[in-house]
Design a protein that fits this description.
By secondary structure, this protein is α+β, with helices and mostly antiparallel strands. The chain is built from four helices and eight strands, in the order H-H-E-E-E-E-H-E-E-E-H-E.
Length: 214
């Protein structure tokens, strides 16, 4: 099921990120030294634009994007898991900002999406789960997350528990607990927004077969 395609991200941020991606792809593929100089200059300009838009030092932008196999700059992948027990959803409190999120993080190379989220839930909340269904695939820039100089696809899975252990925090989290829909604590908005939580409850209640996507 396709979601509202209306772009949420600032137009100039979108353009600067796209410009940098094109420059980095050109840097990788060009064989002409003069073209490389041009792509280098374009990349520097795009990085400066991103630094200006984010009001941060350019050193925080330079090298922000990883070198991609094949030379194509592509979106990063963030994976989140929704574990619902007795009408409440599992959230973990992040050390980094003190706010709450569904367990998850960057996808690790060498593991499938399901393996990634099952490991993240175990590491961050101490629960063994099995990924049941991908309920949403979002382009971060099209939703009201805080602006980000990086580009992300966000994968959200419904997960079934293996057992009924009490949740416990891991190395990157300070707390782990289940919350009712009307008692959601302050969220770590770079990781998930309220719409992600509500979509999880809806998918779980309706046994949703379609995946929401942009």
């Amino acid at each position: 099921m396709r979601q509202d395609p209306t772009a949420m991200e600032d137009t100039w941020l979108t353009r600067a990120k796209r410009l940098l991606a094109l420059a980095e792809t050109g840097q990788h593929f060009t064989k002409d030294p003069f073209d490389r100089e041009r792509f280098d200059e374009i990349a520097e300009m795009a990085q400066a634009m991103l630094a200006d838009l984010g009001n941060v030092p350019i050193s925080q932008i330079t090298g922000l994007f990883p070198t991609h196999a094949g030379g194509y700059a592509t979106p990063s992948i963030d994976i989140r898991g929704a574990v619902i027990r007795d009408g409440r959803i599992l959230l973990v409190r992040e050390h980094s900002d003190g706010n709450w999120a569904m367990p998850g993080g960057f996808a690790d190379i060498g593991s499938s999406p399901a393996e990634n989220i099952e490991r993240e839930v175990l590491e961050e909340a101490g629960l063994q789960v099995r990924a049941r269904q991908l309920y949403a695939l979002r382009h971060k820039a099209r939703h009201p997350y805080p602006p980000d100089t990086r580009d992300f696809y966000k994968l959200f899975f419904l997960c079934d528990e293996v057992g009924s252990d009490a949740p416990k925090p891991g190395a990157e989290t300070s707390e782990a607990a289940f919350f009712a829909p009307d008692a959601i604590p302050e969220l770590s908005l770079t990781r998930n927004i309220h719409a992600d939580i509500l979509a999880a409850f809806r998918a779980f209640a309706q046994d949703q077969s379609a995946t929401l996507f942009d």
